[in-house]
Amino acid sequence: MIVNQELVRKIKDYFDLNIYETKVWLALLSKGIVSAGETAELSGVPRSRTYDVLESLAKRGFAVVKVGKPIKYIAVRPEQVLEKMKSNVFNDAQEKVKTLANLNDTKEFTELQQLYKTGISPIKSEEISGFMRGRQNIMTKIKELADSAEKEVFIYTSIGDFEDKSRVLLPVIDRLNKDNIKVKIALSGEPERVKKLNSKFNLKAKHADHPGRLYIADKKEVLFMINQETADEEVAIWLNTPFFSKSLAGMYEKHLGY
Fold first, then answer.
1. Tens digit of pLDDT for each residue in 207-228?
2. Under 8 Å CB-to-CB from 113, ≥6 apart: which residues?
3. Which fold has domain 5-78?
4. Which fold has domain 125-256?
5. pTM higher than 0.70, yes or no?
6. Cα separation, 12 vs 245, whole angstroms
7. pLDDT tens track for 39-52
8. Residues pairing with 74 in the sheet
9. CA angle, 58 then 1 then 39, to 5°
């Protein structure tokens, strides 16, 4: 059986299989029902390994063992495999979330918090900075900045970036408003899109003339992106420096008329 190597690579990644499992599963799908010997011929996987691989696929729901001798394996429909995997991932995620939710109440977590407080206290605020990559890490940091804010949060970004992050930003802004924490928003891009966004979500975002993406909490901490929105990966720098944050916020606020 000749199989495109790019297909093998992608199926391996999509379904979390190793290379032998991928080749055997593709062979099984192409035949429908196979013995270990037939699988070795079709897949190119050593016969000594096909028994273990077929058994592994059967345990994971990719195949069913056919009753009788010699032992043969029946392929499971790909859509059924996909649905089972989705269900397993969902169940695993729920269990993980449940475990993490209960972690706050454990003695071990209290000790972790104490370790952090002890370690962070002697450090000067201007020495606390971080470099982070990846959208998810940056989104998490934005939420963290908002959660730590006591007086105000300043958001300066593009209308496109705001819309792209709206799933996280809108609930954050709503919570800040409910907690009476002032939210200042400035968005660059098409003025009409800014107006429509304001109208749709009852915001008071001002239109900004210059591009930039940054978030400032209480004029103490600032998170700013250092690459273009079109870059393959988001990169940001976080600084815990009241002097710089206050100066930066002041310049933007003066320009925007806040």
1. 998 889 999 999 999 999 998 8
2. none
3. Arc Repressor Mutant, subunit A (1.10.10)
4. Endonuclease; Chain A (3.30.870)
5. no
6. 47
7. 898 888 998 899 89
8. 33, 64
9. 30
